[in-house]
Amino acid sequence: MFYQLVSFTFPEDITHEARSTFEDALRSLPGKIPDLEDVRVIRAVDDVNVTGYMSVFPSEDHYQRYLVHPEHAPIGTMAEAVCSAISRLLLDDDRPNVLPQGQQDEQLNHVA
User: Residue ranges of the Stress-response A/B barrel domain (predicted)?
Assistant: First the structure.
């Protein structure tokens, strides 16, 4: 599976209507873009000006097709108009781990 996590930060003066319209547009994508398996649109708990967006794809190839899909372009335009900052993280759980098993466990224990 391939995941895209996006953090949309809104300016403090954004209207409730503008933010909700943008979030609803994100929620509408699964029915419009076949390569998109699932979407979650979630408002952040620790920052009232942030909405998180998680999209799920079968593979990175599917994600690449999503990026150029005609239904995706208006979302980017909308985001540029209403957001003060946008950050993205891409995750692929089908890629092999780069650390040997013992080092993976060591890294996880160190971080926790």
Answer: 2-91
Residue 56 CA to residue 64 CA, distance in Å, equals 12
Any residues with CB less than 8 A from the CB of 57 and at least 6 apart, and which? 1, 2, 3, 4, 35, 36, 37, 63, 66
Tell me the two tokens of residue 14.
Answer: 């954004």
2-111 folds as Alpha-Beta Plaits (3.30.70)
pTM of the model: 0.81
**Rounded to an integer, what distance in angstroms lies between the CA atom of residue 67 and that of residue 59?**
13
The residue extents of the domains of the chain are 2-111
Residue ranges of alpha helices (H) inside 11-97 are: 16-27, 60-68, 73-82
